[in-house]
Design goal:
Elements (H helix, E strand, L loop, with lengths): L1 H25 L7 H4 L11 E6 L3 H17 L3 E7 L2 H11 L4 E4 L5 H11 L3 E5 L5 H9 L4 E6 L3 H9 L1 H8 L4 E4 L2 H9 L7 E3 L4 H4 L9 H8 L5 E8 L3 H13 L7 E7 L5 H10 L4 E3 L17 E3 L6 H7 L2 E4 L12 H5 L3 E4 L7 H9 L4 E2 L3 H13 L1 H17 L3 H17 L1
Length: about 425
């Protein structure tokens, strides 16, 4: 079976090698971490037991933050190592954990690479965030009697259909997973349908509710407000936006600004992917809108913006939460285009009137919870967004009610971290017995 998987990987690697080569030549960040991807990893404290946590990208890394912090308190005898797949995930993991723990790029899932990685790390436990069920990782862990736990587990509609097509193959690997801690009963049922033994699948809710900090103050937000000259403005933040979405947002913004009652409205656009920062800057300028790039004033003392009509481009990493904290209204991106959405919990937890489009399949549970309690607003298209934004800006009490209900939804769903840790603790104790 390992031979079959390796052959599939080799074929895929050859097929996509021109794309990989192009990205390495064009983008410097794609040149990083290649030694680690081939299993060349070192630990900071090899004398300790090792927890290997894998979180594919930024969202999964953020979801893991509270869990691994609490794990460290409960199991101080463990060293924690964190792997990610994407460059943005690596940057976020390094910012959160790099001073204490080893952070590295996830090794290629060839059997020989995984054997090498396991020899280097010698983990006592593997935690896979959401669903990173790599066949060779799971099989090597199984052969070495290292328990594998899927944490915050979910299987999207699309992934479930794809897995079912190869059920004869995936059942073997899903059956080797020692514990699945799923976000919802629906996801739990999908794990069981794909081969996870029923007794090993438990519903614990989503960790992301716990990482969404319910607060009215975010460190650094006051400085950001001063730099952007927002003292007398109402800020609309479009966060985590995707391809073709910024044009829609900018069109709606221009339309709103034609109303004298919205003269104090400002717009901040924060694209999801850093490689699109320049592209979005060009779009704003092509639309003849004044522009300020936050990257060019960040860290400078005093006010960095004098033009009260300038569109703000949030072209830095790790500052979205600060922008959200200053917003009167938040639009969550990658939802007006079929990209599955960005995380809307953060905005809701900060008590912001939260709006998103219909394409939220990656966050279905959260969306259903927010909409059920009228804690967010879903729009269907640009025209609908115009109507909703007008309502929210013209009727602050309405927007505040939406914001208050959204925050309550987040609070009502917290507690997954403690439940997750309890199940992991029982698993570790059973292995020691």
């Amino acid at each position: 079976m390992r031979f079959i998987v390796d052959v599939v990987y080799l074929f895929a690697g050859l097929l996509f090698s021109p794309v990989v080569l192009y990205r390495r030549l064009r983008h410097n960040r794609y040149r990083q971490g290649w030694a680690q991807r081939f299993g060349n990893i070192s630990r900071k404290s090899p004398e300790k037991r090792c927890l290997w946590l894998h979180a594919v990208s930024v969202g999964e890394v953020n979801a893991a933050k509270t869990l691994v912090t609490e794990f460290e308190k409960r199991f101080p005898e463990f060293e924690i190592v964190v792997s990610t797949t994407t460059d943005t995930g690596f940057a976020r993991a390094t910012a959160l954990f790099g001073d204490r723990w080893t952070v590295f790029y996830f090794p290629f899932d060839f059997s020989w690479v995984m054997h090498k990685a396991f020899r280097r790390l010698d983990p006592a436990l593997c935690l896979l965030m959401e669903l990173e069920a790599w066949p060779n990782l799971i099989e090597v862990a199984h052969r070495r009697s290292v328990p594998v736990v899927v944490v915050n587990g979910r299987i999207s509609d699309r992934s479930f259909v794809q897995y079912r097509r190869f059920r004869w193959l995936v059942r073997r690997f899903f059956g080797m997973i020692d514990l699945v801690l799923a976000q919802t009963q629906e996801y739990a049922d999908r794990f069981r349908a794909l081969g996870c033994p029923a007794e090993r699948v438990v519903v614990t809710s989503s960790l992301k509710y716990d990482t969404a900090q319910v607060t009215d103050r975010v460190e650094g937000a006051d400085t950001l407000a001063d730099q952007l000259n927002l003292a007398n403005a109402r800020l609309w933040v479009a966060g985590g936006t995707g391809d073709d979405e910024e044009k829609i947002i900018l069109d709606v913004y221009q339309w709103l600004k034609e109303d004298p009652s919205f003269a104090d409205l400002r717009l901040a656009v924060v694209p999801r992917k850093p490689e699109r920062f320049d592209e979005v800057a060009q779009l704003i300028e092509q639309m003849a809108l004044p522009l300020v790039r936050y990257s060019r004033i960040k860290g400078t003392p005093g006010r960095g913006v004098d033009n009260n009509d300038a569109v703000i481009l949030g072209d830095t990493m790790g500052d979205l939460r600060k922008f959200y904290s200053l917003a009167a209204v938040v639009f969550v991106g990658r939802t007006l285009v079929p990209m599955g959405g960005s995380d809307m919990m953060e905005a809701a937890a900060l008590g912001k009137c939260t709006i998103f489009g219909p394409h939220t399949f990656n966050f279905r549970q959260t969306v259903e919870a927010l909409l059920a309690d009228q804690g967010a607003i879903e729009v269907v298209d640009a025209d609908d967004l115009r109507v909703v934004m007008t309502k929210c800006l013209a009727d602050p009490a309405y927007a505040e009610t939406i914001a208050r209900r959204g925050r309550q939804v987040i609070q009502n769903n917290q507690g997954a971290t403690a439940r997750t840790l309890d199940h992991i603790t029982r698993l570790l104790r059973s292995r020691r017995a």
